[in-house]
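Hi support team,

I'm opening this ticket because the web form for multi-chain structure prediction keeps timing out on my end. I have pasted the exact lines I submitted so you can reproduce it. The total is 892 residues across two entries, so I didn't expect it to be a heavy job. Is there a limit I'm missing, or should I split the entries? Thanks in advance, R.K.
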Amino acid sequence: MTATASPETQHPPQLRPPTPPDWREGRVMGWITTLDHKRIGILYIVTSLVFFLLAGLMALLMRTQLATPDAAFMTRDAYNQLFTMHGTAMIFLVVVPIWAGFANYLVPLMIGARDMAFPRLNAMSYWLFLLSGIVFFASFFAEHGAARAGWYSYPPLSIQSFGNGQDLWILSLHILTISSLAGAINFLVTIHNMRTPGMTWMRLPLFVWSIEVYAALLVAVLPALTAGLTLLLLDRMRLTSFFVAAEGGDPILYQHVFWFFGHPEVYIIILPAFGVISEVLPVFSRKPIFGYKAIAFSTVAIGFLSMLVWAHHMYTVGLPLWLQGFFMVSSMVVAVPTGVKIFNWVATTWRGNLIFDTPMLYAIGFLVVFTIGGLSGIFIAAFPFDWYAHDTYFIVAHMHYVLFGGAIFALFAALHYWWPKLFGRMLDERLGKVQFWTTFVGFNLAFFPQHMLGLLGMPRRVYTYEDEPLWTEYNLVSTIGSYLMGLGVLLFVVNALRTRRRGPRAGNDPWLADTLEWYATSPPPPHNFDRVPYVTSARPLRDLRRRLAERNGGRV
Amino acid sequence: MPPPVRPLAALSAAVLVALASAAAALAQGTRGGFAPLEPQSTGAERIDDLYWFLVAITTFVLLLVMVPLLVFVVRFRSRGRPRTVEGPQIRGNTAYEIAWTLVPVALVALTVGFTIYKVPGIVDPSPGEEQTVVRVEGRQFYWQFEYENGVIAIDRLRLPVGRTTLLRLTAPDGDVIHSFWAPALMGKQDTIPGQLTRLRIEPTREGTYRLFCGEFCGIQHTAMRGEVEVLSQQEFEQWLEQERRTQEEQPISLGGAIWTGVCAKCHDPELDLGPPLEGNPILNDPRAVELVVRRGRGAMPGVGQRWSEEQMEALQVFLETTLAPRREEDGDDGDG
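Hello R.K., no limit was hit. The queue was backed up. Here is the completed structure from your submission:
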């Protein structure tokens, strides 16, 4: 730390010989060759959104098939491919990388840095992610079609599966794990080393805290996925028999390896969403976050606990009862730090000046639906009830309440909140509100009845069903809801395209926010900041506004 | 007037409508999907108890979060105050935060305690009693049940009422993972190649209940459905004895059951999955049939791996008498 720095502003500490952020000029070449974390972040976000539309379309096709009993809208095989690819794409190619995109864009800005620690590695992460997505979606055109063994691809079914679809699925995830691992290490190094003077750990924006844990978890558990997939590939090539019972292998071993990765993955998806909510709620409540430390530490606690709960996905494989009991306890204990967060968020709104712009609507909507999703998680953590609910639509409902209601609601909050920073223009507020209500109503119509379907005994992953009492009604409601959600997503696309050129200019800080990214121009210049204010609290921008107001005699 | 109030009114109206329709649905026998199906066994009843306990706990927590949230959202909405107006700068409150850490801890402890208290009665409803034992094999894409006296049943499990039956579940080594699930009777138990798992069921009421495969197992996962028929103890014993005699004396009856439960799920001419078999020349070559059935071919799984000689024979008899091309044009042996 330089002793000569004025307390007011500070040069960014990483003044290396400038790397040209785009080493080729031009509209297209500039983007292809860019090393600028903001451009890479936007590439990540836009690519993930395109994948989101594709995977969402798959969901709508499936819901169309399930709208009526005994439907023949598509074949069994097409349906099996669709649910496999929908799940895999949403988890691996949409939610995880889109947080990588936001983190890419925001982390250096939020900590007052010039760029990520390793800009070239950063670019490599993005291009590998794109490659993995291309391999993934191209596998639909492989002989016999795409993978069709479910997003967790349990052997022996995934070993038995015909054609190259399953191999391409493995290949694409292998590429993706390299990309994610490189990205995660980059985030860790950046957050640990490149915080601007004054930004201590206890002044770090909560979104950055969540990315710290997100990245640490990725580094901890991605190797398990890579290992599991490699063993699966070897088994498929008939070179080994790790999971082949006839030759002394154990199909359950794969499940342990997969879920040791797979459950932390859920938190890898949801922790950045928590981070977004922790940024949005205070700004639109005009208050500081309630219990900063509790929220930061509960993020770390959730990250740690998430590695101890994996076998709650495996209650029906016949584990010893004491082991199921252990995983029940560890899974339910996650509810404690999560509860702390939720109560602190609710308390943040207490006596605030609640401004219901679209990001705030999504944050409140998140609190509602995520709480429901968390509570249905308590049901299935209790293993005897899970013996009933496992592999039914109850699980499908729970998981979408957590992943769509959690991650995607937070994603829309994030998109509406940071859009002005990303593109310099405001989104249309009215359209945003319509979009929120369409999505909120559609989401609950689509997924709440699925709890009932599960309790009525409808297994998941069936391509059609017979006309059992109430199955038809709930399925139809669910399909109508899913179309509404589709409309909601479409409205966002319309909003984004319409305001691209015509939206009002945002200015640096349209929301009167708290964190450093709003100190830069919108969009920020390639080097982010000319000067960075010395950070004295977790809300440097508000401090700055107050100091300015004092200087101007009370005017803001 | 700022907008948030009107959507709130709309939302509460929607909730009211949902509750009303829920109440209407509850009045029907299915419990409207707001609870597990009416339990028909001791274990299922206890799972049902656990469900209602969880409903109570989670409803309490839901209200604990939603009521304050709704109150705050309405009460502290901006009402046109400018963005520059800040709320009180409260950074936290240790006492409150400790309270809402301890409340979840207590609720978790309570839930874990109640679950553990219920487990033994679910896993083994009447310990020490004499039990009927049935071997259950999950296979692509049918259920095979083998009773102690050698009787084989496909897709239809018969159980005595009021007595515990021990199901010993597995899948052949070359098969995939399935999951045995009769919702009204019990939770799921996976059938896993190379492993033996167990499930005990003590049915409380006679009747016929649906049986599903819970774990996705391939192209005909959806068709892997069956029934569990709960009979009175006397009827059950009679059926078991009579079925043993029938299978010994007229193997074609078992063969027919195998055809419907195993072969027809893909080879039914109305499906476009397996090639239709009626009049197929391969049926005249029992050795070829046996090879294909045991080992599978192309996309066809080895549905008959580890079948007994008798079981294979039963299917062969059925195929020869009903579907095989007639060698003599005027054999006139009728068509099954």
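A quick check on our side: Chain B has a mean pLDDT of 89. Let us know if the file doesn't open in your viewer.
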